[in-house]
Amino acid sequence: MIELPSRQIDRLLPFYDPGMPNRAMIYATLEGRTPGRAWVDDLDTPSTCVVVIHFHNLTFYPRRLEQAWLDRTLPRLREEEALVLSWTPAQRPGLSLPLRPEEVYDRFEFSDRRPTQAPAPLPPGAALRRIDRALLARCAWREMMVRAHGSEAGFLQEGFGLCLMREDEILCEVYAVFLGANCFEIGVFAPEAHRRQGYATVACDHLARACEAQGHDVHWSCEQDNLGSAATARKLGFRRETAHQWLVYPRNGAC
User: Fold this and answer.
1) 229: which residues sit within 8 A by CB, 6+ positions away?
2) For position 233, what pLDDT does the model report?
3) Is the pLDDT assigned to residue 253 strictly greater than 80?
4) Among 137, 159, 236, 245, which is least packed, fewest CB within 10 Å?
5) Can you list the alpha helix ranges (DSSP code H) found in the chain?
6) Mean pLDDT along residues 97-102
7) By C-alpha distance, which of 44, 51, 56 is closest to 16?
């Protein structure tokens, strides 16, 4: 298990499947847009690998995975830091996890968006504003965006977001966070006082159309029991729902 220099991480692109769940997240790192770390079995001619992106320390194994590599690397990685393993049991037949996760989050990824012909109208008195440095400083998800991109400048360069606003008040924040494999992962946050009023659907529709106008697909993911988020995804016209899991492993000795 040898750490690969970050400047060489694109060498691992052939190991991953662009149809996998969370593809925008892992490919954003493989394509050099967002930070992460990678380990291989051989530095010169690797035959397998594992990649950990900075966002939640999400951990991704390649599409072809041997039990011995999983058994060797997952406990080793957990010695350094807590991990969240992106896992699809149906794509891992015959493999067993060497460690029991502390928590399991059952999730959906939504894709294959078929939007209505007309953009959703903005609420009366509301306007959309692109997130710049000054507006980002006011956003609830600022720290998450910085963590995902490694810096504030990284987010402003590689991702983008919109705020639905009424005068100077933020009604909701929407983000195109990761761009990888020609796909943006999008997400939304609305303050409690502004939820269940349709703001998220309107703002996300406009954000998704901006991504699609640039030639990119958009994906949406959430926990399966987050009924509001799943309902928003369906309103936005996503047709395909792919089940997968996030498995949480605390750092060894942290419990």
Assistant:
1) 220, 222, 223
2) 93
3) no
4) 137
5) 23-30, 67-80, 133-136, 142-149, 152-158, 199-213, 227-235
6) 92
7) 51
- List the one residue out of 8, 2, 51 whose CA is nearest residue 27: 51
- Helix orientation angle between 227-235 and 199-213, rounded to the nearest 10 degrees: 50
Rounded-to-integer distance, Cα 226 and Cα 144, Å: 19
Q: With contact defined as beta carbons under 8 Å apart, do 21 and 244 qualify? A: yes
pLDDT of amino acid 255: 42
3-state secondary structure of 26: helix
d(CA 23, CA 35) in angstroms, rounded, equals: 15
Using the 8-state DSSP alphabet, how is residue 75 labeled? H
Instruction: Work out the mean pLDDT of the chain and round it to a whole number.
Output: 93
- pLDDT band for 187, please (50, 70, 90 cuts): very high
| Model pLDDT, residue 132 | 95
pLDDT band, very low/low/confident/very high, at 195 (cuts 50, 70, 90): confident
How would you class 5 by CB atoms within 10 Å of its CB: exposed for 0-12, middle for 13-18, buried for 19 or more?
Answer: exposed
Answer yes or no: is pLDDT of 8 > 90. Answer: yes
Q: Which amino acid is at 163?
A: C
For residue 208, count other CB atoms closer than 10 A to its CB. Answer: 25
Pick the closest to residue 174 from 146, 141, 143, 151 (CA basis).
141
Q: In what order do the strands lie in the sheet with 58-60?
A: 2-4, 36-40, 49-53, 58-60, 83-87, 238-249, 103-113, 217-223, 183-189, 169-180, 160-166, 127-130
| Complete DSSP assignment for 84-129 | EEEE-GGGSTT---SS--SEEEEEEEEEEE---SSPPPPPTT-EEE
Q: Do residues 78 and 252 lie in contact, with contact meaning Cβ atoms separated by under 8 Å?
A: yes
